[in-house]
From TrEMBL:
Stored PANTHER family: ENOYL-COA HYDRATASE, MITOCHONDRIAL (PTHR11941:SF54), ENOYL-COA HYDRATASE-RELATED (PTHR11941)
Protein name per its UniProtKB record: Crotonase
Annotated TM spans: none
Source species taxonomy: Bacteria, Bacillati, Bacillota, Negativicutes, Veillonellales
One GO process term, biological-process aspect: fatty acid beta-oxidation
Taxonomic superkingdom: Bacteria
Organism this protein belongs to: Megasphaera hexanoica
């Protein structure tokens, strides 16, 4: 696969997407979003990928947002189409069957913060900065930011961040639950890979079903969500992984999951 603005690797079950436009702060122009979509579509259909890590190239920027220079002269129709396209690609990240860890290695502003929030959870380097600075440009977040930030940190905190164009540092992001862990830059990818490997030791089918149950539940009322959980809990007992996982427990050995 050929890419213009991302690096893409699959090694030992871990797919890594590195957004790589260093001269423009890894900002998301259309070509970069197309690259991300191509990688995500590949991952969605891959049996080899068990966990995904998304990060940015370098040690200063994760992604400094959608490309302002590219958007500046858009008319409302072009801007609406761009928002629909970018938000759609970011939703594809959220809907990947595999768990996705975001390793936020610096500024995650606008579309960068929005990509990170579509991942299952976020680790940040200690120099990371999060924000949705769009109102300072006379626009609003356009790749899902108003929706996902409010769901992740609550409407009051999301409104303060978005309405007052308040960037927050990694310590504050940790405090409000936007990130799960803050580590020095050099330890960021090792920390993400360590957790990826821990996930890969679990029953692969169960991991994907658990992700889906959580995501589905966040879109509906709790009773419907619990009903979905009960249904897929039952389905787990149709897998070889369940037989192996429970047999291994009773035989006091590690499970040898096949993902079936
Ligand atoms: N779009 C296009 N280019 C960008 C960019 C962006 N979002 N962010 C940074 N760049 C470019 C800069 O213009 C600069 O390029 P030149 O050298 O060619 O001028 C280069 O990247 C490096 O940036 P800076 O010189 O500004 O670096 P800095 O360290 O002084 O500042 C920063 C870093 C605080 C991140 C600053 O670049 C900044 O504020 N960027 C814009 C952040 C922003 O407003 N993001 C929201 C975009 S809108 C959006 O994302 C909408 C949406 O929801 C879809």
């Amino acid at each position: 696969m050929e890419f213009e603005n991302i690096l893409f690797t699959v090694e030992e079950g871990i797919a890594t997407i590195t957004i790589n436009r260093p001269k423009q702060a890894n900002a998301l122009n259309a070509a970069t979003v197309r690259d991300i979509e191509k990688a995500v579509d590949y991952i969605a259909g891959s049996k080899d990928v068990q966990v995904v890590i998304i990060t940015g190239a370098g040690d200063k920027f994760f992604v400094a947002g959608a490309d302002i220079k590219e958007m500046a002269d858009y008319n409302p129709k072009q801007a609406g189409d761009w928002g629909t396209y970018g938000a759609g690609v970011i939703t594809k990240i959220e809907r990947l069957p595999q768990p996705v860890i975001c390793a936020v290695n610096g500024y995650a502003l606008g579309g960068g913060c929005e990509i990170s929030m579509a991942c299952d959870f976020r680790y940040a380097s200690d120099n990371a900065v999060f924000g949705q600075p769009e109102v300072g440009l006379g626009i609003i977040p356009g790749f899902g930011g108003t929706q996902r930030l409010a769901r992740l940190v609550g409407p009051g905190m999301a409104k303060e961040i978005i309405l007052s164009n308040q960037n927050i540092d990694s310590a504050e992001a940790l405090r409000i639950g936007l990130v799960n862990k803050v580590v020095p830059q050099a330890e960021l990818m090792p920390a993400a890979i360590k957790t990826a490997k821990k996930i890969m030791k679990q029953g692969p089918v169960a991991v994907q079903i658990a992700k889906k149950a959580i995501n589905n539940g966040l879109q509906c009322d709790i009773i419907t969500g619990i009903q979905f959980e009960s249904n897929v809990f039952g389905l787990c007992f149709a897998t070889k992984d369940q037989k192996e996982g429970m047999k291994a427990f009773m035989e006091k050995r590690k499970a040898d999951f096949k993902g079936e």
